[in-house]
Amino acid sequence: MTDEQLKSVFEQIPAPATDSVFKTEKVVKVSLPHPYCITPKHVAVAADDFGGMLGESAIEAAERMGVRCGMNGCNLPYRKHESQVTLVIVVPVGSRDLNAVPGLHKYLLSIKDKATELGVRGFAFPSRSGQM
């Protein structure tokens, strides 16, 4: 999903009430468990067999040759590294119990269907001080 598509998704999510103690900030792609890390071996396979194009086909071909994600200790194949569209909702500092954030539960229930329709699969709740 491009940055423009993410922005479009965010614009379609209903905003919380103006007097809420939380606010929606943006929609981002989050890589789980982490971004897939390309190694020099991936690049070599792409250069040798794929005309220098390092795409999914080259990555998967490299994996068939035993090459893995370059993240230390990671043995997951490329297809197990996922990205999910995530709505970022900023909550007040000290909001360790999200159930205690006034109106948050009700808001999340109210946007559930729309968020699902738009492809939002996750939520992030960073905390910040100051005006919401």
Total tally of structural domains: 2
Range of helix content: 25-40%
Inertia-based shape: elongated
Oligomer: single chain
Structural class computed from helices and strand pairing: alpha/beta
Compute the number of strand runs.
Answer: 4
Task: Give a short account of the largest sheet.
Answer: 4 strands, mixed
A few lines on this structure:
This protein has 132 residues and is an alpha/beta fold. Helices cover 33% and strands 21% of the residues. The chain folds into 2 domains: 3-33 and 81-128; 40-78, no CATH class.
Descriptive notes:
It is built from 4 helices and 4 strands; from the N terminus they run αβααβαββ. It is α/β, with parallel strands linked by helices and 132 residues long. It folds into 2 domains: 3-33 and 81-128; 40-78, no CATH class. Strands 1, 2, 3 and 4 form a 4-stranded mixed beta sheet that branches. Helix 4 (104-117) links the parallel strand 2 and strand 3 (120-124). Helix 2 crosses helix 3 (56-64). The longest helix is centred in the last third of the chain and has 14 residues, at 104-117. It is elongated and about 60 Å long.
